[in-house]
Amino acid sequence: MPFFAYKGRNGRGEAVQGVLEGADSGAVAGQLFGLGVVPLEIKPSAPPRDEGTSLNLSFGKKKVTHTEVLLFSRQMYTLLKAGVPIMGALKGLEESTDNPRFAEVVRDLRESLDAGRELSVSLARHPEVFGQFYTAMVNVGEGTGRLEEVFLRLFHHLEFEKFMREQVKAAIRYPTFVIATMGVAIVIINIFVIPAFAKVYQGFKTELPTMTKVLIAFSNFMVAYWPFLLAGLVAAIFGFRAWSNTPAGRMQWDRMKLRFPIAGQIILKATLARFARSFSMAFRSGVPVTSGLSMVANTVDNVYIGDRVTRMREGVERGESVLRTAREAGVFTPVVLQMIAVGEESGALDDLTSEIADMYQREVEYDLKNLSSQIEPILIIMLGALVLILALGVFLPIWDLGSAALKK
Fold this sequence. Notes:
By secondary structure, the chain is mainly alpha-helical. About 75% of the residues lie in helices and about 5% in strands.
């Protein structure tokens, strides 16, 4: 997504500026309001440069993992709940962490707090570690005086996100491994096996079947041009990565992933579960619907779904109901739309979206348990077609030679 430079004033009237990532300027404005900043100017900008304690320039050190942020949230809740001052809590976490890079981040948080900044502003100095949703929720906790409760909710939220990401990876891993194995098998057969049979067939002094000619021609092509084919494969991989890192490419790729056979539905359900859980948490913490949708749009880990959520926010800003905007998004099932309608009518939208997340989580778990049984028929058909082609191409000449010998 593009970056935008902003200038504004915080709750104390101080001038602030920086760079945020968002779908558009409206989404960035929603993020700033969630952080307690009134935007005065928002314009497109280049990505921010890392400086000082930036993590990207700390070569040779481990990255800050999702699990470390998860544990940080849980430990902050425990320490604050026990009455430990926040500076003392950060001091203890800095000394206890095994990751030098994360220790630098915690140290910078202490120094930033000591300089008079708020905790949410200090966290925003490290967007690589603490995302925009995380920072906005901490800002809400500071404003409501329920910071320890927000840290506990963030812990459960991060734990849920970790689980859903692992489920998505599991959904893709099995078919990807099988297809890659089949590709390697095809390469080995064409480079080593078929050429050996081709030498035998040359002594037959007879017309070979069409299927055998096609296999031999394809094998000769791979043997003669394998360096170019390998270079083309490497170029295709790097080209795909470069394309998928562009805003338009990332949007198209994330949309294509949702259309994968079988796995696409699992990815969609997992993404919507993250959306529902994040929205429920933001709404339950007192964040307005429009600001909550802006925050959630950048946490669903899918640019296409994030764009749909941004459109929902724009619809709500125009005065439309959440139900209508969700229906126009075109990604929710009728059951989910019905639950949103009930939530709006009863004033319990946070509870109903939490139930939506639980429902999608159960469906993802069930689909993954049955994933192998759903994919196996497709893989068996693919393997059967491959074996049939190889059998016809390799054994038809031998069969024809045997038939001719019997006639003599």
